[in-house]
Amino acid sequence: MLPLLGPSNARDSLGMIVDSLSPSNILGTFDSGVEISLKAVDAVDTRADLIPLADMLDRSFDPYITMKSSYQQKRNNDINDGNKPD
């Protein structure tokens, strides 16, 4: 778990560091007020969608292990494009 960034692994953490050092992130982009507003609304909507997940974690015996297992299963599913590995 990374503070403010949530679950991750060593590979993804290194990728976030490299991505944050890319020229477009260093120089920044100039978003209009409308784009910033849309991003804020999207963030609130995403948070609202995650409320049931947070409730499930609160009811679990060990929230950390539940989150870790869920993250690893999702990551493996993403890597294998939804196909079960042989």
Describe this structure in words.
- It is a single chain.
- The chain is mainly alpha-helical.
- The chain folds into two domains: 1-29, no CATH class; 31-62.
- Helices cover 69% and strands 0% of the residues.
- The chain is built from five helices and no strands.
- The longest helix is centred in the middle third of the chain and has 17 residues, at 33-49.
- The radius of gyration is 17 Å and the shape is extended.
- The mean pLDDT is 78.
Summarize the structure.
By secondary structure, the chain is an all-alpha fold.
What's the end-to-end separation, in Å?
29 Å
Written as H for each helix and E for each strand, in order along the chain, the element string is HHHHH
Gross morphology is extended
Instruction: Classify the helix fraction into a percent range.
Output: 55-70%
Largest sheet: number of strands, sense, barrel closure? none
Mean pLDDT: 78
Sheet-strand content, in percent, reads under 5%
Radius of gyration (Å): 17 Å
Structural class based on helices, strands and sheet pairing: mainly alpha
Note the quaternary state here: single chain
> Total number of β-strand segments?
0
Which stretches are poorly predicted, pLDDT < 50 over at least 5 residues? none
Number of domains: 2
Q: What is the tally of helical segments?
A: 5
